[in-house]
Amino acid sequence: MKKITYLTLLLLLFTITVSAQSSDYFIHTVSKGQTLYSISRMYQTTVKEIIDLNPECVNKLSIGQKIKIRQNQRQTQQSDSTTSGERYHTIQPGETLYRLGQKYGITPQEICEANPGLSISNFRSGEVILIPSAKEQAPAPTVEQPQAVPAAPTKPDTILIRTTHKVERGETVYKITKLYNITEDEFRAANPGIKKNKLKKNTIVNIPYSSRELALMRFKELEEKQKEETNAEVFRRLEQLKDSMASQSTFEGIRVAIILPFVLDSYSPNEQSRMVEYYEGFLMAVEKLKRFGYSFEIHTFDSGKESNSLEPLIAGGELDNMDIIFGALYPKHNKQLAEFAREKEIPLVIPFTSKEDEIFRNPMVYVVNTIQSYFYSEVIDHFDVEFPNANVIFISDSINNKKEFVSALTESFKQRGTPYSTIPLSTITNMEVNDTILKKVMSDERQNIFIPTSSNEVTLSTLIPSLILLNNDTIDLPDFKLFGYPEWQIYAGNMRNEIYEVDTYFYASFFSHYTLPEANAFQNEYIRWYNRAPQNIYPRYGMLGYDTGYVFLLAISKFGNNMPDNINKVSFTPVQTGFKFERVNNWGGMVNKKIYFIHYTPEYSIKKIDFDKR
User: Fold this and answer.
1) Class for domain 254-370+517-598, per CATH?
2) C-alpha distances in angstroms, 553 versus 45, 285, 302, 345, 353?
3) Could you give the 3-state DSSP secondary structure of residue 52?
4) DSSP string of 276-305?
5) I need a surface site. Which of 237, 292, 451, 533 has the fewest CB within 10 A?
């Protein structure tokens, strides 16, 4: 019998592991903010199937944990009517884009296009990427007057004719450019004799290759010449081509669609007034940007009731030429819009709901309202920065509606060695009887932070008077602070002085207050525009419309198709909602992870703590 050495055994085990991962499952490394549910949505599987493969996940899911995900064998229908399944791949040590392309029969460019979040900085072992379906080469179209086209252009400004087009009745230059996905400048360069927009019927016009198509042809030429390029070289060339395409694009004006339930066919006061106010704030942002020289064409659509379908609007073609879409309110409508946005490659901004599964599979989706699991992970990180020497005392009551957040906090405290304990609310309200318990759980050396396990107004209104008494030295106790929840900004008006007195903090993804200069300026401007004050609700929808409109319209005006890589570079002081976008995975959309801490100080001032500007 042949002797099996230790090295041979290792190689055999490695081969078996790689083979199993490539055929049956792949490895996902858990990152901050991910839950079993979000991971299952990301890979179109179920929580049960993940747990079946990874029983240890039932009780614990931690950052850096490696779990098995079964390959989805779903067949994807291609536009050319062929069927072939896409799959996921965990990058192995030593793998390159070129080798992956060879393995799956696709080009490095196709891998990058399927993974907009992929870059040289995160192309590393352990990273999961989407491998698109291998496409069959489509036959060249038959045209009336075909032009000879070389294998690849030699100069970036060469005009190459792809085909010709016979003008039909009523066709214009604009319609033809949209039909062939080229710019008007590219069309006129290929047809120098045409000056007007309207064309005569039966005129034969040249259809050139677009700048993007030329760039792709140049890429293929480079790919043939340098088969063994390193990942760094591939990405460098991709970035050069992307910059070249962006520089050749011209923005004569940004076409914007806003799709909201104005409910014009059946009046619904609360819903309608909030959507109208969002739109009013949005228009204020548009007007301000126009004063800076940007140009917009706003198209507004009423999505109607939740039971309505947006399919007639989508099928009608009115959204086809949009550069960006804002909306909608209801999950059903957002799902329909997301599918359309992905097909047409149009950015879709979802301003309201944070429960959008589309973000895990759709690179065109931007979710403004932070998804809960990412929300909590950001809060925990900021908590450690703001209170590095904390001693946490949870205050529980019968309502106890923040179990998930408290569970996430306690798990973090265990990992980081932060001391914590839990006492009932009655210990605070009956402190003369229970002062011994308080002295036992509080610390003289650390920052004592009280955190109720409920965000309810009843809990807060019961807790605060008792904490004020503690501050008045009725019992000799160490200093403390109160930490809580975004909902508290709704109640603050009813107990403003009391909240200041107990040195209160709460976290929030949005916040405004008349003492903040940007909020005060917006309110005055809103009153000047609309002759009434915005509604006193949270969030303030007019401010939300202004913030989202300003950031996204400025970003797409300045960066065009490169907006995903540059949206966080937009210089803007928001009135209410902050923005810090990150991709949820290499092939998915962008989620807003911006979190503030709001501090009502004992000096009766309000501080909006932005951890990204510290």
Assistant:
1) alpha beta
2) 35, 9, 21, 17, 20
3) helix
4) HHHHHHHHHHHHHHHHTT--EEEEEEE--S
5) 292
pLDDT on residue 309:
95
Structure confidence by residue, pLDDT tens digits, 310-355? 999 999 999 999 999 999 999 999 999 999 999 999 999 999 987 7
Q: Where are the domains of the chain?
A: 21-131, 161-248, 254-370+517-598, 373-508
465 touches 472 (CB < 8 A): no
DSSP letters of 448-477?
Answer: EEEEES---HHHHHHHHHHHHHHHTTSS--
| Intrachain domains 21-131 and 161-248 with the same fold | yes
Does residue 328 have a cis peptide bond before it, meaning omega lies within 30 degrees of 0? yes
> For the segment 134-176, what is each residue's pLDDT rounded down to a tens digit?
765 444 444 444 343 333 333 345 578 888 888 887 788 888 8
Bond prior to 539 in cis (omega within 30° of 0) = yes
Kindly indicate the confidence band of residue 246, based on its pLDDT and cuts at 50, 70 and 90. Answer: low
Distances (CA, A) of 358 to 332, 339, 565: 11, 8, 20
Residue whose pair of structure tokens reads 């809060």 in the numeric block:
379
Q: What is the pLDDT of residues 525-563, one digit of tens each?
A: 999 999 999 988 888 999 999 999 999 999 999 998 889
Spatial neighbors of 561 by CB under 8 A, at least 6 apart, are: 242, 245, 246, 249
CA atoms of 391 and 481, how far apart (whole Å): 10
Please name which of 377, 276, 340, 279 lies closest in space to residue 580, comparing C-alpha atoms: 377
**Any idea which residue has 């030329």 for tokens?**
214
Q: Provide mean pLDDT across the span 380-403.
A: 94
Fold of 373-508: Rossmann fold (3.40.50)
Q: What fold characterizes domain 161-248?
A: Membrane-bound Lytic Murein Transglycosylase D; Chain A (3.10.350)
CATH T-level fold of 21-131: Membrane-bound Lytic Murein Transglycosylase D; Chain A (3.10.350)
Pick from 311, 296, 297, 303: nearest CA to 259: 303
C-beta of residue 335 within 8 angstroms of C-beta of residue 328:
no
Nearest to 446 by CA among 473, 423, 413: 413
What is the pLDDT confidence band of residue 78, given thresholds at 50, 70 and 90? very low
User: What letter represents residue 604's amino acid?
Assistant: Y
Q: Extract the tokens encoding 47.
A: 């929580």
